[in-house]
Amino acid sequence: MLQEKTARSASLAAKTPFYYGWINLAIASLAMLATLPGRSVGLALITEPMLGDLQLSRLDYGAYTFFATLIGAAFNPIVGPLIDRWGSKLILSAILLGLGAVVVAMSQVASAGFVLLALLLLVRGLGQSALSVASLTLIGKWFVQRLSKAMGIFSVIIGIGFATLIVLLGQAVETAGWRVAWMNIGLVLLGLAVLAAMATASTPEKAGLGEHPELGPAKGPEETHAVAGKSFTLREALSTMAFWVFGLASAFYGFTIAGVTLFSESILLEKGFGKEIFQYGMGGFLFLGLAGNLLAGWLAQKRSLGMLMGIAMVAMALALGTLPLVGSPGGAIGVLMLLGFAGGVVTVIFFTAWGKMFGRTHLGKIQGFAQVLSVLASASGPWFLARVFAESGSYDPAFWMLAPVMIILAVLAFVVKMPGAGTPSPR
Q1: Residue 229: left (phi > 0), alpha (psi -120 to 50), or beta?
Q2: Separation of alpha carbons 372 and 352, rounded Å
Q3: Which residue from 426, 424, 364, 365 is spatially nearest to 140, judged by alpha carbons?
Q4: Of the candidates 346, 341, 355, 366, the residue with the CA atom closest to the CA atom of residue 252
Q5: What CA–CA distance (Å, rounded) separates 135 from 32?
Q6: Domains in the chain, please, with CATH?
Q7: pLDDT for 97-147, tens place per residue?
Q8: Phi-psi sector, 419: left (phi>0), alpha (psi -120 to 50), beta
Q9: Interatomic CA distance for residues 378 and 251, integer angstroms
Q10: Which of 263, 269, 252, 261 lies closest to 317 in space, CA to CA?
Q11: 3 state DSSP class of 218
């Protein structure tokens, strides 16, 4: 039976009149959008009505989400090896199925307590952590020569998609209530699990398309390294300076932006700007983020990822160093736009770097470990900014502390030696 299903999948991929990796890119995009219930921005849309419904204090809910996020991060290093062993098709479908069931169950929770904590842990672990790794790894398994282009397209899709879903979910919560909205999301996730099981192909090899079926010549030394088929194990990847430079740069971006976006209205209020400037600033943040996605996806095919990450870190340092000095509405909006642009670049690099640098064979493990750094940093950033504000009465000291860190990471990104760029992979 399993051989018959594999044969049907291979036949479908072989008969598709274009490269089947683009189908998998579409599925991976839907899967990443499906992480919304497990992300802070998704949970934020139901937080207030849920707290009132369950008579749960804000302090207790904060503790629930903190522990759920930290423990949920443990799903990252677990799902990576499972993908490498059993394939994206099975694991992606299983995660979507599990997440859908958890979201449906969460819509029916009757009171605060252990059950709610367990459901939050699972929605964080399956949604924010495991499903993100599965989505990114699926693209990395299918694209080598065109990985940067694929990740640029992917980033734009999810950027627009998240913005749209947030608006739609917010409206659904207001009109139908959080339970109905959450139930419907769970049912959609279950439907996506069926779609993933039917249409996903784990790798070109398993789909009967050969090892590297993409068209067109390789571009640049990093692409040539990837096409050569050299693959690092997780241990070998962790032994390289490049892993830690890219991992920490991405993590510190997440650390910073999680706090800045969560408290952005409060940060602007401290500078004397009202809600209108906040709205314009966040609009500019999202718009420049998409521009950064497109530019990074194009440049990553021609330029070093280290150079691009260095530029993004310089932009972050400039924005953070300028923010305490902002004295005009235009300046405040400009800083948020610069942060958005840097984020757009960092996002594409984070999605692209691991497959380019370390190959496809152990990509799930490597991607999962990198995701752990990102999740832990994103969970800690808001706490750091809140602590600084509580002790000093201002967010400015936090920005003065973070700006030099970004400069150090920029220098390291500019000079770090890329694995495979003129050196053989470890033996």
Answers
A1: left
A2: 16
A3: 364
A4: 346
A5: 6
A6: 2-199 (1.20.1250.20), 220-415 (1.20.1250.20)
A7: 999 999 999 999 887 778 888 898 999 899 888 998 898 888 888 887 777
A8: beta
A9: 7
A10: 252
A11: coil
